[in-house]
Amino acid sequence: MNYPKSYVSEAQQIIDDRKNKNGYMLDLRYEEIKSKLPLAKKYIEDMAETINKVAQLIVARDERIREKIAVIEKENLDIQKALEEELIKNGYPADYLNPIYTCEICCDTGRDGSKRCECFNSVLKQLAGKKLSEQMPVGLMSFDTFDMRYYSDVPRTELKGKSAKFIMQQNFDYCRSYAENFHLPCDGIFMMGGTGLGKTHLSLSIAREVSDKGFSVVYGSVPDLIRKIKDESFGQSDEEGEVLETIKECDLLVLDDLGAEHDTKYNTSNLYEIINSRINNRRPTIVSTNFSISEIRERYSDRIASRLLSMKCMVFSGDDIRMALKQNK
Ligand SMILES: [Zn+2]
């Protein structure tokens, strides 16, 4: 996928920052060891000295340079080994003073041979996802702020004798474990139920936690995301083709409020394309809607309905908790 140049330079900056931060952390480790372990300090200085010796040989154009360098290398390895032993003896891991890399494949350069390293691509995907989700109040919603007190524990016939609280606890547990164990590929979740029952809170909590783990996440209401796709395809956006691509290719897509978009052929076919492509590629999508199953079947084609219902279906029930929350403030 082609990302705008601004994303590429921003991603490179993030990778460079990682490299600098890791370099700084390594410097701190050297300082720590040198101040705590005098013998290790001597080894570190000896190793620096061997590098000096090589430099001097090169400058002096010494005739037996190869032979001499081989001797120095052997000396260097011996010191390195002694240093590692000294570290272990004092409770440090043997590789404590090795270079620190966030990505072992590219050593934090962002390049893997002639192509972009996977770490670079995943930073790009995260940036594109964040850009699309910009206006979402992800910061406010988390599993910790979900309040179960507002759900009734009275058993209900339409819930097969279970209470709204019982059902919500099940939904909550499922969502939390889904976020905690998020991996790719995995299945999506289809959340159904009236407004104010916690669908948005739980889907945002998942989005937040999965994004914190470094996955690329797009969160948006269906009308908002469709508007962005439309703006892009009709040239009202300076982003070229990347909105739809990002929506289709992000690690987790959260589509809030399905059914709130205008009921047009254009919207429905875009939705089908997104949901279908993601399911076929086993990329998870969380969809929430105020519609019931029969309303979904009525509004959308059988193709969309059956795609949605093939996901983990979660029913939210009870009374609108937003009223209760307001009264308690
Ligand atoms: Zn890498």
Summary of the model, kept short:
56% of the residues lie in helices and 10% in strands. With 329 residues, it is an alpha/beta fold. Helix 2 packs antiparallel against helix 3.
Radius of gyration: 28 Å
- Could you name the ranges where pLDDT drops below 50 across 5 or more consecutive residues? none
- The CATH top-level class label of the largest domain: Alpha Beta
CATH architectural designation of the largest domain: 3-Layer(aba) Sandwich
Distance between the termini: 47 Å
The count of β-strands is 9
Helix percent band: 55-70%
Strand order of the largest sheet: 6-7-8-5-9
Fraction of residues in β-strands: 5-15%
Explain what the structure shows.
This protein has 329 residues and is an alpha/beta fold. Helix content is 56%, strand content 10%. A 5-stranded parallel β-sheet has the order 6-7-8-5-9, sandwiched between helices. Strands 1-2 form a two-stranded antiparallel ribbon. Strands 3-4 form a two-stranded antiparallel ribbon. The chain has helices at residues 5-36, 38-60, 65-89, 118-133, 164-180, 199-212, 222-233, 242-249, 265-280, 293-299, 302-309, 321-327, and strands spanning 111-112, 115-116, 155-156, 162-163, 189-192, 217-221, 252-258, 285-289, 312-315. Strand 3 and strand 4 (162-163) form a beta hairpin. The protein contains 12 helices and 9 strands. Bound molecules: zinc ion. Zinc ion (ZN) is lined by residues 103, 105-106, 117, 119.
